[in-house]
Design a protein that fits this description.
The protein is 66% helix and 12% strand. It is α+β, with helices and mostly antiparallel strands and 400 residues long. The chain has a four-stranded antiparallel β-sheet with strand order 2-3-5-6, with no helix packed on it. A two-stranded parallel ribbon has the order 1-4. β2 (44-54) and β3 form a beta hairpin.
């Protein structure tokens, strides 16, 4: 098992995550197409030899031809703008995928920490019941406790043994999920968190977070880039309705000794295909892109409001439970064990103390994990805390 901190986990994610690699490949593809869109058409060279004969007489003509297609300036610039818009959208999608997957890493890390804390309290309480069962068997034989008390302890021990087995499975599942995000190609590897979570997340300062949060979201940037690409596509479709001019030039040599140069122009005649359908299609793409942008803005606003509400609710609950006795030493179960061994507490009270501590510690671990998850979700929904909460926070763009 490889123990890593959250920062180390994010670095492994940036280097190894397969879905992030796929997003980078899509961005590289768009970059290549954008570069290709700026290229000039290549000239075409051709050599033609025409041998002729009649009644034993031979005659031939040889042509060396060079053709070059010339695009109108508006057509080439529109094609470049469309390709650059697609590239901008791909870059924003890469940013969005990085933020989404980065949040998934943080969430998996938090769940792995919570699972290990739950396992620790389950092991401790189960150990108490194991020792208690051994002691109770002796005390029942000596007549100190009743058979009912012994059998109840055995039943409780079996229940906590099952809870312990479930906790062990939860730890394994959480580690597998974390490993899949960080080291998907490492066979037999297992990644686990190196330590517990902090007490509470830092205060992000909601006033600063909300300022410009929607515009910082990469999904919005991608949708806006798609609108610009669609508009450039309309300009390109309109420019392509004007035929390109192809210049033709070369040299001709005849077998009778005549030779010379020739020049010509070639222009397609827009008689059957006038490109009207292509213009209509691109204009429809603009409307679709604008509708997607409006939908994305609404979804981002709802996502941000939901993230804020969840974080504030969990923050208030965490503050209410902040001043509690769960972290004090000795804790409830330690006090109960001492009292039980001294004969000052009966078995039922010991069971109640163990169950109460197990339930409280489990709820505390769950609440802390939910609070940190809500904090990271708010970071994602706000487009990152770097610009609002200072450079000390973790960026959502890890692995971009």
């Amino acid at each position: 098992t490889r123990r890593v901190s959250l920062e180390e986990a994010l670095q492994l994610f940036g280097a190894n995550n397969l879905e992030l690699r796929l997003a980078r490949s899509r961005r590289a593809e768009a970059a290549g197409l954008a570069r290709q869109a700026n290229a000039f058409p290549n000239p075409t060279a051709a050599v033609t030899h025409e041998p002729l004969s009649r009644n034993g007489q031979d005659y031939s003509e040889t042509y060396v031809t060079l053709t070059q297609r010339f695009e109108l300036p508006g057509e080439r610039s529109a094609r470049a703008e469309a390709a650059n818009g697609i590239l901008g959208a791909a870059e924003a999608r890469l940013w969005a995928d990085s933020a989404r997957l980065g949040f998934a890493v943080k969430q998996a890390f938090v769940e792995a920490v919570m699972a290990e804390e739950h396992l620790a309290i389950s092991e401790r309480v189960t150990g108490v019941f194991r020792l208690g069962a051994q002691s109770a068997a002796v005390r029942e034989a000596e007549g100190d406790i009743s058979l009912y008390e012994l059998r109840r302890l055995v039943v409780e021990r079996a229940r906590y043994e099952n809870l312990l087995a479930d906790a062990q499975l939860a730890v394994s599942a959480a580690r597998r999920s974390l490993t899949l995000l960080l080291l998907p190609e490492a066979e037999g590897a297992e990644v686990a968190p190196s330590g517990p979570l902090g007490g509470s997340p830092p205060d992000p300062g909601l006033d600063g977070v909300l300022e410009g949060a929607v515009s910082r979201r990469p999904e919005v940037a991608a949708s806006r880039a798609e609108v610009e690409a669609a508009l450039a596509g309309v300009r390109l479709a309109r420019a392509e309705r004007i035929p390109d001019i192809t210049a033709i030039g070369g040299a001709k040599r005849q077998s009778d000794g005549f030779r010379g140069l020739f020049l010509g122009l070639s222009v397609p005649l827009p008689l059957f295909d006038r490109g009207g359908g292509a213009v209509e299609a691109t204009e429809a793409q603009v409307r679709s892109a604008e509708e997607r942008l409006a939908l994305t803005l609404r979804q981002v606003e709802n996502d941000l409001r939901g993230a804020i509400e969840s974080y504030q609710s969990l923050r208030r609950r965490s503050e209410l439970l902040g001043e509690n006795l769960l972290d004090e030493e000795p804790d409830l179960l330690q006090i109960a064990q001492v009292a039980y061994d001294a004969g000052e507490m009966d078995l039922v009270q010991l069971l109640d103390a163990a169950e109460a501590l197990w339930g409280a510690r489990t709820a505390q671990a769950r609440l802390k994990a939910d609070l940190w998850t809500a904090y990271y979700d708010l970071e994602r929904a706000a487009g990152g805390f770097d610009s609002a909460a200072g450079s000390g926070t973790t960026s959502t763009e890890i692995g971009r």
